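Thread: "does anyone have the structure for this chain?"

Original post by V.I.:
We have the sequence but no experimental structure in hand. Need at least a predicted one for the grant figures.
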Amino acid sequence: MTNEPREVAGSLDATGLRVAIVAGRFNDAVVDRLVAGALDTLTRHGADPADVTIVRVPGAWELPIVLDSLAAGGTVDALIALGCVVRGATPHFDYVAGEAASGCAAVARQRGVPVAFGVLTTDTWEQAVERAGGKLGNKGAEAAVTAIEMARVLKAL
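Reply from O.Q.:
Generated one for you, tokens below.
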């Protein structure tokens, strides 16, 4: 018998994982780049494109209800939420961004399915572009890595 703690960590092997990407259409010039980054990352890590479902919704506000429906269906190992909310001159940004974030987190907690949050919340359009494949990387790709790792952590528990 060992006195060492048990350590659980997720791998980055997406082989056999069933993943759904839920993406907002609002600001689609940026969101499409996030989706492309997520898909590329999933396949580079072994996911079969046939095991990936992409669901389009109007915007970030609508992400949680679709994520919840997918998680409740029991057919996915991980979910990726992608969207883009750019701050404007009204408080609308705060409501949309905040509710998208809290809704996505609630789905993960309540359903036990990891939800990788790849929703950009930026002050400017330029900042969004920089995070969707520009000089600051691709947050869609980063969300896909998180989804893979979290699915593997939960499978290992």
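V.I.: this helps a lot. The radius of gyration is 16 Å.
O.Q.: and DSSP finds five helices and six strands in the chain.
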